[in-house]
């Protein structure tokens, strides 16, 4: 039986149907639709498959257009917009049932020397000193509503160690900041394109929930309609997806049923490797009246 990490690697590596056309398999995660990070990671992989290996992706900007259906594959149609001397640009549409569900634009840059500075990594405990998220989920499993329990406890390809653990089903209002160590939980040997596609996958975990923290909201509230609207990433420096990375997220504002979330991703040695930004829908509906 394949491990969940190998399943993820198989899913990220797409099937090529034509020169600019790829097919990606999906994976049920207990959500009503496909996990947004999976679509982002696969779309980035599709774009990367049409670019020379010496030009790694440095940025992506994407929109989530429709909920994805995890019962059918996703078709990725790549538009080779530009191949310049040092920059390459691609646009990707992810399609299901004849309609786009996700649109991504990505820019690739030939590596070169230049000025260098970065913000300092927050002062946090080392991941080895923190409890594993999987163990913590097991400890609170008895208090989880039965309809959510299987999805809440399922094996994940990514290991998380939050600096300040919290109970997703009993959220108290708190500052809109979050610090979490994460890594692919098995040793893997993959190229740069796959590594950055995996980080795109990981970057969607927990990000939108940052804007919910001041309001004591969580994804399991029956009146909450929550969805990612857009997603942007900038890749700065090399990293390995199977080594510890710190995800430092914050939410500067929420208004009009939308929340802004930002993230900085650091290696354990303090090197800043990526930046992330996302806007998410957080719409509270009126309770359904009893009949």
Terminal CA distance: 48 Å
Number of strands: 12
Based on secondary structure, the structural category is: alpha+beta
The CATH class is Mainly Beta
The Cα radius of gyration reads 19 Å
Largest sheet: 12 strands, antiparallel
Q: Estimate nothing, just give the exact number of structural domains.
A: 1
The CATH superfamily appears as Acyl-CoA thioesterase, double hotdog domain
CATH fold descriptor: Porin
Runs with pLDDT <50, length 5+?
Answer: none
| Shape type | globular
Strand content: 35-45%
Number of helices: 5
Q: What spatial order of strands do you see in the largest sheet?
A: 1-2-4-5-6-3-9-12-11-10-8-7
Query: What portion of residues is helical?
Result: 10-25%
Task: Summarize, please.
By secondary structure, the protein is of the alpha+beta class. It is built from 5 helices and 12 strands.
Describe this entry's structure for a reader.
This protein has 291 residues and is an alpha+beta fold. It has a single domain (4-111, 129-284), classed as Porin. It has helices at residues 4-12, 36-48, 133-139, 146-153, 192-202, and strands spanning 15-18, 21-24, 57-64, 74-83, 87-96, 99-109, 158-162, 177-184, 224-235, 245-255, 258-267, 272-284. Strands 1-2-4-5-6-3-9-12-11-10-8-7 form a twelve-stranded antiparallel beta sheet, covered by helices on one side. A hairpin with a 2-residue loop joins strand 5 and strand 6. The longest helix is centred in the first third of the chain and has 13 residues, at 36-48.
């Amino acid at each position: 039986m394949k491990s969940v990490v190998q399943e993820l690697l198989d899913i990220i590596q797409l099937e090529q149907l034509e020169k600019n056309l790829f097919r990606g398999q999906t994976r049920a995660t207990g959500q009503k639709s496909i996990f947004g990070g999976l679509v982002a990671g696969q779309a980035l992989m599709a774009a990367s498959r049409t670019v020379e290996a010496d030009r790694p992706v440095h940025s992506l900007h994407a929109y989530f257009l429709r909920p994805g259906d995890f019962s059918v594959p996703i078709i990725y149609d790549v538009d080779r917009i530009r191949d310049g001397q040092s920059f390459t640009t691609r646009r990707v549409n992810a399609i299901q049932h004849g309609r786009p569900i996700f649109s991504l634009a990505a820019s690739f840059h030939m590596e070169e020397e230049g000025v260098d500075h970065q913000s300092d990594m927050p002062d946090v405990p080392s991941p080895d000193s923190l409890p594993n998220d999987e163990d913590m989920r097991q400890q609170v499993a008895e208090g989880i509503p039965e309809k959510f329990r299987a999805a809440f406890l399922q094996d994940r390809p990514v290991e998380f160690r939050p600096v300040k653990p919290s109970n997703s089903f009993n959220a108290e209002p708190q500052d809109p900041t979050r610090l979490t160590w994460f890594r692919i939980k098995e040793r893997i040997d993959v190229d740069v394109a796959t590594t950055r596609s995996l980080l795109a996958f990981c970057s969607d975990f927990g990000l939108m929930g940052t804007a919910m923290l001041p309001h004591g909201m969580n994804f399991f509230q029956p009146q909450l309609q929550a969805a990612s609207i857009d997603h942007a990433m900038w890749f700065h420096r090399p990293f390995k997806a199977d080594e510890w990375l710190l995800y430092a997220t914050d939410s500067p504002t929420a208004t009009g049923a939308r929340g802004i979330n930002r993230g900085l991703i650091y290696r354990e040695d303090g090197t800043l490797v990526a930046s992330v930004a996302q806007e998410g829908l957080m719409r509270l509906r009126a309770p359904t009246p009893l009949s």
